[in-house]
Specification:
The protein contains 11 helices and 10 strands. With 419 residues, it is an alpha+beta fold. Strands 1, 2, 3, 4, 5, 6, 7, 8, 9 and 10 form a 10-stranded mixed beta sheet that branches.
Length: 419
């Protein structure tokens, strides 16, 4: 089952590195109106309007963020709109998973890191990403943890990073209060900017060094492990008892470890007596946490009166607000919560798997473009080509190439040219 899931999943970042060469990101999505392009390439910056249609739609929540960034504190939206994955997963053989138990708890298997506390900073996204990444290592190394401070700082700070994330950095907030998301985390770790062990750059250093890590620039490309895979999974529909995406999520959690999600954390949707959360309306997803288990029979009566889901069932969540909050740092969120999104799994390998990483995309997957030429989706060949050129520094052997795929069951072929 493990290999099947890896093959079928939306495995963004199939890290095949030599010293790795991430290819540029291109996508073909059904909801973009296409036009013919007779030229061999398109300069998007100077393109006529007809060519701009080849850019995938921007996430509407991101546009709302640009207009009103004060609504967001911890989890912030990406430009990417991957809502098409929900339907594609339902139609895919990736949804044909094993028979799953009615309840499951990764804590029973020693695969959940200790509850941590982000304090007064908007770093939940970095806590959830580093905790998901460490989950797969805990059976071997039960006490390790990764630095959320390192991920938060080096995601945003740097010449290229500051330019790419200028819209986020323009809000006069501390780097540690801007917020972030799983695409930022994945891009940072794919560039081998971390993860590093927590003791190398402790979270307490944020206040000790007045929120300025400029003196730690020599740690930018430190990495105690290398990210090998990131899986961006479908959002649960929140409507049906028979939700194919729900089984895909459960299967990933059982086989690989903790998953990151974001949701609306407003107190009005939280039941303090039962430590349960249910938001019945579509709203801003402002907080990132970990899914660590599930219970199909979790009673719907445990949620707030008058705002209860139609069916039993909930995800077991680990928060990053310390053990004094929720139930020792854990709570339940209904399967039918309308704000659950950004479900992601990060997997690591030892840092000696490859010795060098050639790349240009140090901020990760930011935007999708069509790499096809056609009038309409029906005429699409569903094929595209992309390439990067690198100049090696010495006589080296190519071991792997990494790139993003943008849909379920994507097939690919890698060609290498020298000279």
């Amino acid at each position: 089952m493990k290999n099947k899931f890896l093959k079928m999943s939306v495995s963004v970042l199939l890290t095949l590195l030599i010293m790795s060469c991430p290819l540029s990101v291109f996508a073909v999505t059904d909801n973009i109106e296409r036009v013919q392009n007779d030229s061999e390439s398109v300069d998007i910056e100077n393109a006529d309007n007809e060519y701009v249609d080849q850019i995938a739609p921007i996430n509407e929540e991101y546009l709302e963020y640009i207009d009103n960034p004060t609504k967001y504190y911890g989890a912030v939206p990406s430009m990417l709109d991957l809502s098409y994955l929900d339907e594609d997963y339902a139609d895919s053989s990736a949804a044909d998973v094993d028979v799953l138990p009615e309840s499951y708890d990764l804590r029973d298997y020693g695969r959940v890191p200790a509850v941590r506390d982000q304090g007064n900073y908007g770093t939940c996204w970095a806590f959830s990403a580093t905790s998901s990444a460490v989950s797969g290592l805990l059976n071997q190394f039960p006490s390790i943890s990764f630095s959320s401070a390192h991920l938060s700082w080096f995601t945003y700070m740097g010449n290229i990073e500051s330019e790419m994330y200028s819209c986020y950095l323009s809000n006069d907030k501390s780097v540690f209060n801007i917020g972030g998301n799983n695409y930022f985390s994945g891009g940072c770790m794919a560039a081998w900017k971390g993860p590093v062990f927590s003791e190398k750059l402790p979270y307490s250093y944020i206040t000790k060094y007045n929120e300025d890590f400029s003196s730690f620039e020599n740690m930018r490309y430190d990495a105690d492990y290398h990210m090998q895979d990131a899986f961006y999974l479908p959002n649960p529909s929140g409507n049906s008892e028979d939700d194919a995406s729900r089984d895909v999520i459960k299967n990933a959690l059982r086989d690989y470890g903790c998953l990151t999600i974001s949701y609306n954390s407003s107190d009005e949707y939280y039941n303090n007596e039962t430590n349960s959360q249910y938001c019945p309306i579509e709203s801003v997803s402002d907080h990132a946490v970990l899914i660590v288990g599930w219970d199909d029979n979790y009673p719907k009566e445990n949620f707030n009166d008058g705002e209860r889901p139609e069916n039993d069932g909930a995800w077991l969540i680990q928060n990053s607000w310390g053990t004094g909050y929720n139930d020792g740092g854990y709570f339940w969120i209904s399967y039918e919560d309308k704000t659950i999104q950004a479900i992601t799994l990060f997997q690591l390998e030892a840092a000696d798997n490859y010795t060098k990483n050639y790349q240009y995309d140090i901020t990760g997957w930011q935007l999708s473009l069509a790499a096809d030429k056609f009038y309409s989706p029906e005429q699409s060949s569903r094929e595209g080509y992309a390439a990067n050129v690198f100049t090696v520094e010495s006589d080296e052997q190519l071991e792997a190439v990494s790139f993003y795929t943008t849909d379920v069951d994507t097939q690919y072929q890698v060609s290498v040219y020298t000279g």
